[in-house]
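Q: UMP kinase, please. Structure only.
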Amino acid sequence: MMNNTNGNGTGTSHWPWFKKMEQIVGNSLPMKTVLGEENSGSGMSSPGRQGNKRYATATSSPGCQITSIKPKPVTNARWRRVVFKISGASLAGTGSHSADPKVAMLIAREVSMACSVGVEVAIVVGGRNFFCGDTWVTATGMDRSTAYQIGMMATVMNSILIQSALEKLGVQTRVQSAFSMPEVFEPYSKQRAIRHLEKGRVVIFGGIGAGTGNPLFSTDTAAALRASEINADAFIKGTNADGVYECDGMNSVAFEHISFRELASRGASPMDMMAATFCEENGIPVVIFNLHEPGNISRALSGEHVGTLIDQTGRID
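A: Structure for UMP kinase:
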């Protein structure tokens, strides 16, 4: 929790402001319900698919006891330090705007599971659920830099929502950004971020472009930049889709393993190609997966096979 000092030298707490955030992500659902939800239901559909599983929905038995099917627990970790990019669209859940508290708490719970086995997690959150700069540029002719600055504010809101959800589960979290907002988060420092991670804290890089201060950077690209700076072992991106799709007639099947070159040759991609190129040049493997599937986040953070793995080698025939 951050404190400022007023002119009389006394501390002024910002806790009331954070309590408002908790009312959005924490108090909108009973805590027992949020932490116990594990039954799959219908939800987001991926291209060429129908009825992909979403985050779990808790159900009540006749005795009003919440029953659940817990995901497979994470027992070991392949990666020590990971940058986790959360798309703004996936944070919205079934809606197109705002943030779904069930998704926020699902993310927080599974990040907590990964941290418990020693994975150091840094997070970057998109802002498309609140504001899409490209849409406004196309519809209104707004200056692109101005539109992306508004998007930067959207990623700040999402960062604080994720921070509140994590801290409600007892996970120590720090938000950093090169975009100046001292009442809300720390200024970005590579050394301080690494130190937080080594102490077991989750670090969230807020602001578009992971807080690089450049509004024309996508969150994908700057997340890849931060992954290189903090020496991350992997870049994982949680979306509404199961991975990178291979179209085969009427069916669409997600690749299990492809190379960066093959990703680039396919044209449309769920990942910014500048970010993919940066990861390729720095030897950082990328995983793209569906974060709404219970257990996927903690498994992906720990290096288990989830979604599509993208690296230099690609598929081995």
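A: Brief note, in case it's useful. The CA atoms of residues 173 and 197 lie 9 Å apart.
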